[in-house]
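Why do we bother with holo predictions? Because pocket geometry can differ from the apo form. Keep that in mind while you read this record for cytidine-5'-triphosphate.
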Amino acid sequence: MTENSFKDKTILLTAGPTHEPIDPVRFIGNHSTGKMGYALAECFAARGAKVQLVSGPVNIKAESQSINITPVTTADEMYAAVKQLAPKADIIVYAAAVADYRPKMVADKKIKKSGDELTIELVKNVDIAAALGKEKKEGQFSVGFALETHNESANAREKLQKKNLDMIVLNSLNDPGAGFKHDTNKVTIIEKDATTAFELKQKTEVAEDIVNLIWERTHG
Ligand code: CTP
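The structure, written out:
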């Protein structure tokens, strides 16, 4: 693979968490930092790709000039951006930690403290990878992530099929040093007919491994 390996290719990536508002000052979110998604974006850009990065709220910045960022906050906004950009993408990587549910009602004023208990009703968000998987165009290659605590392989395989993905990057929370809040990650890449396990490494090196395998599958 060289610095021109992905020349003329457009890569669409989602990264970071989504924030689902409860009222003007509160939201439901998660601990995703966006590091894995941004590392992938830099790695594709370094190999000549044009990168469309749809990013939830994060504290990191993209370095490469070839990365075009569409900042979003909620899952609905992320879906709208991805849907618009997907038709032009050769490869789509869903690295975002999308909130599965959002508050049914968003209060227009700050919710004041009252009783001892407060119940917030949640409704399901769109599954962006699954929705786009249904309209995947011929030749488009798609990659998802799965974070699992039990039955890791079986759950990842189910997601591969349900979301019509070509590849799924499995992080197990049982591996020390892997997952949220770490600069390192230990992944297993699962495909329909192959499983490739990698050692614990820096997220930037994990990104290289993922991009290398995507290159082999799309150019091999
Ligand atoms: N994903 C997505 N939209 C969602 C939820 C997940 O695009 N609303 C994508 C993620 O970016 C990731 C993959 O789907 O690539 C798997 O996400 P995960 O949260 O592990 O899977 P879920 O289908 O939400 O399953 P569960 O939370 O029940 O394990």
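The pocket of cytidine-5'-triphosphate is lined by residues 14, 75, 94, 96, 98, 100, 125, 127-129, 144-147, 159, 163 (CB under 6 Å).
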